[in-house]
Amino acid sequence: MTDEPKTQLHHRHLEQARAQVIELLTRQAVERELVSKSEGHGGQDAVVSQLVARQQQTALQQRMLRFHPADIAFVLESLPRDAREMAWALVRPERRGAVLLETSDAVRRNLIEDMPPGEIAASLHHLESDDIADLIGSLPEDIGAQVLERLDRADQVEVRSVLSYPDGTVGAMMDLDFLTVRDDAALEAVLRLLRRKKKLPAETNQIVVVDRGNVLRGVLTLEQLLLSEPEQSVAEVMTPNPQFFYTDDPVTDAVAVFERYDLISAPVVNQHMEVVGRVAVDDIVDTIQAQQERDALRQVGLREEEDLFAPVWQSGRNRWPWLALNLFTAFIASRVIGFYEPTIEKLVALAALMPIVASVGGNTGNQTMALVIRALSLNQLSGPLLRKMLIKELLIAALNGSVWGSVLGAMTFMLYHELPLTAVITAATVFELLLAATAGAMIPVLLERFGRDPVLGSSVLLTAVTDSMGFFIFLGLASLFLV
Hints:
The chain is α/β, with parallel strands linked by helices. The protein has three domains: 15-170, MgtE N-terminal domain-like (MgtE N-terminal fold), CATH 1.25.60.10; 180-280, CBS-domain; 319-481, Tetracycline Repressor, domain 2 (Orthogonal Bundle). Helices cover 70% and strands 6% of the residues. The chain contains 23 helices and seven strands. The strands form two sheets. A four-stranded mixed beta sheet has the order 1-2-3-4. Strands 5-6-7 form a three-stranded mixed beta sheet. Strand 5, helix 15 and strand 6 (265-269) form a beta-alpha-beta unit.
């Protein structure tokens, strides 16, 4: 079975699970209503209704118990708020922390808004310190502080340590659950140590090797440990000079290194080269997925923390700024068209053809912009590289403009049998693609230079440029050569 059918099967499973939860919640709501009516009349009907309601609740609890925390999070995010609260009430306290870890920030805030800090702290008790830090960091500051005060003292120390690092750094995402051994230890002693632990941290493919001062010396892979002679020392078989990160390294650097070297885990050190944590591949995958989701929403001006089932007024208000900007840019595009109304009146074919030019330009600009945003996130665009990239994109735009402009010109000639009109739309396509490639490259670069997120609203700005200038180029050429 290939990966794609497995993925489709998993999604179908989640959809079925959500449908079953919704069905059980609906039955439970109906039974509650019947119970409330029966209690007013008393008698045997009330007792029967209460028993049925409890049976429905038990069935739903058992169904939720069989779900993985990530699946519960998916179901909760897919439910309207009233149904979500009913389902959340049925999640066992010891599983709530793991579920909260999998939900989006907006849904997490909705779930915990009525939970007292003590109850939140109790739900986090079963999590690792770095996961607790992630959750507390996503809470409002006052609530997060109250939850932190109610944690065990050992957890408090570790959570405060992780929270002390700025967002976006390796220190803020590192895992505090890792294994270290001394470089002068025998492999046999290391094997005994692992047997006593009985359980290894997740994603463990290597053990960090340190000296007496906890300074990083290398890493000992499980392969080296198992296949070497037990009498050998760790220093004899370990890998010296491994890939590692400082606590203040940007997360984007860690993502790039993991992708480049296919790492599973890597140690994290402070400025004194003392090992303080590690980064595992699951942290990197979560970071990449979160960044992709965030970029996809922010590129069109949406807030990544918006709840799918948030109140209409709240969601609508969140979208006002970019809708206002889009309205303004669309008005500018309409004024460009209005300026050339006499030209359009003389040659009606222009009205049918000009959206094509703008559309092709928008597609080209989005392609270039996606490449530039990715390169910026990986720090691949220094001054000379930016110029080379821009020249390359302009050459590609000139090639595509010539090819597809000729195709569009041929189609125009077949429809209108006007050779000058064919030449104008071909030239307009070339110029529009050159402009779109330039805008697609420079908009995210300029946003970053001015200290803004290069993804935020870049698609809206690009559409404004390609539409307005596409109309201007095409209609301007038409007014010069056709009228």
